[in-house]
Design a protein that fits this description.
about 525 residues; DHBP synthase; Rossmann fold; 5-stranded parallel sheet; 19 helices; 23 strands; elongated; binds threonylcarbamoyladenylate; binds magnesium ion
Length: about 525
């Protein structure tokens, strides 16, 4: 199919769009929130084509767009008395209201629910097209399902060129995030999706409004075992996105300490501090962030980095909508760098006695974070397993159990595969480590110790205030390894040779602890490390 490019400023193009819609066609239209992929809401075959073009799951209902209040009574079971107050305050505009539907709404529009979502857009072109078509228009965002919503005609073409009848070019969407969705079918009403109209604005009109828990967290119910990751794939670039809370200074320190290039998605004026940066909005300005956020998400993959670290917006006002979208783009991966206890990194050569040091630190009130355990936990996460299956073949998962040997064989086959593995697992390992640090903080630990053999090669160094390497003379290590693991001297020597030399550990550490067997000297050295 050839997708026609129509222009909102040409009356004949508007007439053409209306014609296409009346005849069962699909036309992407500009709205003040995002571009919508419109079809006649009363024509089930046309609406079915929307789902097909977007690859949209059948169980996700569509919003019905109208141009006037008179169009609403036939679409709903009963006009809710609260609707007129909402309409007076916010329509036309970025608000969608869910009410009980009438029989005129086809099941395909409401995805089988007994409710319908209705919105009256304020964008003059959207208004003109609905009015000219003379029918209500069902219109989801005009993106491929799972991709960031489109705020420009070019975004629509990137996703849907050749799959829809036309795109009506009408400039950039002003709001930039999809409409606020509220349902009047609960008491009190429930905010289902935050958007350009804020919770506070709605409460001024309706009184108390509850916020759906789905705004802040992923839903765990009815996840299917075959593709556990799918439910939370929204607005997602291919690049692994992590949302980072904290000050600009904490963020910059964290980005700068990463071992592999990352794309820094930050606020206006901050990008110059980074090698690969995409700016969105101004710090503290939810409206400006909303305007830019989807375009920023669409540009991340072009930055050529395996991972992106996104500055977390303040989730208040319109910022809540921005936060909500970014949370999904990040597959709910958020790390909070506001850490109030010292973080020590602990590493060392095999047999040097890192565990002895770690036990001494634990006895002095430090929380020990075992990174082997964290790495295992990370690979047990359904979203991680789904991503690993995508990258390395679904046979690495057997009866829900990860075949770690098979995964290792494939992932360590070459550098590109190893990088792919790291891009999937490292962001989760970092997130879980930061969570463990906050837990240590809550538990009253005097410091958190990240205990990791491969610390120096990992991004976890970015979290450490100080790094401690534990070293011991080779002959001492040799004896310890043989005794500990019950292996021959020759095998122990092989293991030792596989690791970097002592100088590597020493030069990358802030402090070296020599553990040659004198426990009281070691204890003294450990005590000197700890905060008073
Ligand atoms: O700003 C917007 O709302 C844009 C423009 C094009 O108007 N449209 C949009 O549509 O974002 P879509 O399909 O991407 O998102 C519709 C949202 C979904 O979260 C859907 O689950 C919810 O509205 N929704 C639709 N009908 C519903 C219903 N009957 N009950 C509850 N939620 C509903
Ligand atoms: Mg959408």
């Amino acid at each position: 199919m050839k997708t026609q490019l129509l222009r909102a400023d040409r009356p004949e193009d508007l007439a053409c769009a209306a014609d296409l819609l009346r005849n069962g066609g699909l036309v992407a239209i500009p709205t003040e929130t995002v571009y919508g992929l419109a079809a006649n809401a009363l024509d089930p075959a046309a609406v079915a084509r929307i789902f097909e073009a977007k690859g949209r799951p059948q169980d996700n209902p569509l919003i019905v767009h109208v141009a006037s209040m008179e169009e609403i009574p036939p679409l709903v079971a009963q006009v809710d008395p609260r609707l007129s107050a909402l309409a007076d305050a916010f329509w036309p505009g970025p608000l969608t209201v869910v009410m009980k539907k009438s029989d005129r709404i086809p099941a395909v529009v409401s995805a089988g629910l007994d409710t319908v979502a209705i919105r009256m857009p304020s964008h003059p072109t959207a208004h003109a097209v609905i009015a000219a078509a003379g029918v209500p228009l069902a219109a989801p965002s005009a993106n491929t399902s799972g991709r960031p919503s489109p705020t420009r005609a070019s975004h629509v073409l990137t996703d849907l060129d050749g799959r829809i009848d036309a795109v009506l070019e009408g400039g950039e969407s002003e709001v930039g995030v999809e409409s606020t969705v509220i349902t009047l079918t609960t008491d009190p009403p429930t905010l289902l999706r935050p958007g350009g109209i804020t919770h506070a604005q709605l409460e001024q009109v309706l009184g108390r409004i509850q916020i759906s828990p789905a705004v802040f967290a992923q839903l765990r119910s009815n996840e299917t075992a075959q593709s556990p990751g799918m439910k939370y794939k929204h607005y997602a670039p291919k690049t692994a996105v992590t949302l980072v809370k904290g000050s600009f200074e904490q963020y910059k320190r964290f980005v700068d300490a990463q071992k592999t290039p990352v794309c820094a998605v930050c606020f206006r004026g901050e990008g110059q501090s980074f090698d690969h940066a995409i700016e969105y909005g101004l710090a503290g300005d939810g409206n400006a962030q909303a305007h830019d956020v989807f375009d920023a998400l669409r540009r991340i993959d072009g930055a050529g980095c395996a991972r992106a670290l996104v500055r977390c917006p303040d989730p208040s006002g319109v910022g809540l909508a921005v936060y909500n979208r970014l949370l999904r783009a990040a597959a709910f991966r958020v790390i909070d760098l506001e850490i109030r206890i010292p973080v020590l990194g602990l590493t060392g050569q095999t047999g040097a006695g890192k565990s002895t040091v770690s036990a001494l630190l634990a006895a002095r009130g430090c929380a020990i974070i075992d990174c082997d355990l964290i790495a295992r936990t990370a690979t047990d996460l359904p979203a991680v397993q789904a991503a690993l299956c995508d990258a390395f073949g679904s046979d690495i998962l057997r009866d829900g159990e990860l075949d770690r040997r098979l995964l290792a064989r494939r992932a360590f086959a070459d550098a590109a595969h190893t990088a792919a593995l790291n891009a999937i697992t490292h962001p989760e390992i970092t997130r879980l480590t930061v969570e463990a640090i906050h837990q240590a903080e809550a538990d009253g630990a005097c410091a958190a110790v990240i205990d990791a053999a491969l610390l120096l090669d990992s991004d976890l160094t970015a979290l450490c205030d100080r790094i401690i390497s534990v070293l011991a003379p080779d002959d001492v290590r040799l004896q310890r390894i043989c005794a500990r693991d019950g292996i021959s001297e020759a095998d122990a020597r092989l293991r030792m040779a596989a690791q970097p030399p002592a100088e590597y550990y020493a030069s990358h550490a802030d402090l070296v602890l020599h553990n040659d067997g004198d426990l009281s000297a070691l204890q003294q050295a450990v005590d000197a490390v700890l905060p008073d």
